[in-house]
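PT: before anyone asks, these are the final sequences, not the draft ones from last week. 676 residues across everything. Please model them as a single complex and drop the result in this thread when it's through.
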Amino acid sequence: MRDVAIVSFAQSNAESEIRSEVEILQPVAAEAISQSGLERSEIDFTCSGSSDWLQGQPFAFVMALDAVGSWPPIKESHVEQDGAWALYEAWVKIQTGEVDSALVYSFGKTSPGDIGLVQAIQLDPYCVTPLWPDLDSLSGIQARACLDAGIVTERQMAEVVSRCLRSAQDNPHAVRKGDYSVDELLDEPFEVSPLRAHDCPANSDGATVMVIMAGDRAKDLCERPVWIRGFDHRIDPPALGTRDLTRIPSARLCAEKAGGADGRLDFAEITAPYSHQEVLLRREMGLADDLPVNLSGGSLAAHTLMSCGLNRIGDAAMRIAGGHGDRALAHAAQGPCLQQNLAVVLEGE
Amino acid sequence: MSIESLVKNAKPLRGPHVIEYPFRRSCGPILSRFFSGLRDGKLVGIRSRTSGVLVPPAEYDPETAEPLDDFVDVGPGGEVVSYAWVSKPRSKQPLQHPFAYALVKLDGADTGLLHVVDVGGDESKVSTGMRVAPRWSAERKGDIHDIEAFVPENEAVPAPPVMKVDETPVGSVLTPLRLEYDFTAGKEQSVFLRGIAEKMILGAKRPGDDLVYVPPRGADPRTAEPTPEFVEVADKGTVVTYSIVRVPSENIDFELPYVCINVLLDGSDLPFFHVLQKCELEDVRIGMRVQASWVPDDQLEPSVTSIAYFEPLDQPDVPFDDIKEYC
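LR: through. Structure below.
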């Protein structure tokens, strides 16, 4: 395996954006490239993650290339997935030896549409999408299954929210933050029972850009390279009724394969858009009860769809690069009720 | 209006935007049995080796991928496995008063079917484990909406008998998709569109550079740097390529056949897409000079349709060598 390090990272999240995708992405890409210490022409491969359905702009994913530059022609690829999966493709491409460095980016602009309904079109188009279940409702079904099974309590859900929103006060990229007591949160009305509004993701518009580099060159580029030590992604079956929604085998497996179960973790950054999912994922991925999770505030503080998973990885990497920990698990999830999961273990030099 | 004041005052534009596809999906032999069953007021699942009886029936075993063909009658009653309460239904959701989305495990099935539960808007009447049964649609067509909703079992009535049995299996289902957006045009595109409403075609460029992009795209595609300088370009230009359209399309008012052109406006470096009129089809050629024909001033809007079309300009053709880079 080739050693690959995250050498720079930049993100932008806003409650809603009036700028075009290119206008959102351009300054973030410029910042990440400048921080990497590389010239744009020195970056061998470009890989992105986005979905045109979110903003209803066909071929937004192609137009976005203007923001990173594509002349002279570049080697480029795209996944209709969170940018974390684009990072996986770039990492694999480096493993093949074909390239040494990569620019990974993602963006999501969900404010122009009804994100709950837009996400319904990823479901079974014969029997499920025609009923237009929004994602909050599907996650509510999962939350109730977890409550009924005793895996999580309403109080624990509020504790997750309270902690994440308090941590988010230190995160300039958070769009929802504040100091709320658990009791205060439990007094709030239900949005989609058993979920309250704060149990649901803080939807935002934004972009994320990361530069990765193999081997010794990474050591030259940054003071403390953050190395990718393990990387894996898995998927559970698509039919909601076939899954036991209180278990996430794909999360368990990818965390294990990425090496999350071996050795010490100092913290974790995970994609848990709904509060009960943090409790569920901690249990599935074998994270210790006292392990700090989502010091960024996670998706409850800023949830830029298609970028949030890559943001968790970048937030974890920047924390390690800044000397606040040596080894961390970062996780991305997509699909209804945590159907698709990705885990990466990061370690500082 | 000057370019400066346009740029300064241009509040980004937003407007309604709809994406709509009238999908008709062929359903294959397995779902055909399920939908034909619904049309007849019956529910069927399929037996799998690893996961028991699946409803809706799946084509393959979710664990082993073995093909499945052992159909089993299930329901019509069942129990709520889990649910979420929707207090503010959206207009395209199946019920317009508060209801529950739920996974319903039908009698004889091992997996939950996602559907809605109607308890008359009273959340206290729904619970995990409650017994429910379908409320069938009066008119059944062979799709998931043949069940209007699941209701408490004691309120359910049996499926109304089929008046005339349809022997033809359901081959496809209509699953229309319509998504509505409040689309935002972005900053530079908004300046461009507001310019159009003033009968000005604006491009943008990088400071210190000569290349002008029309419409502006938010960044220079060669360097990925911002293009904050706006420049007015001519409404005359040169055809760099074209295509003759003979296929009708919704939202297109031009009489068929008509010509689409990529026109390199004088002063710009990015061909601009529009329609050519007042020109015989056999006369269209690369290098020909054309000019925008604007709608009357009182109809000008921030939209490229404010240019009604382009028309030939009585000027000599531009030699191919001068435009080949743009063709």
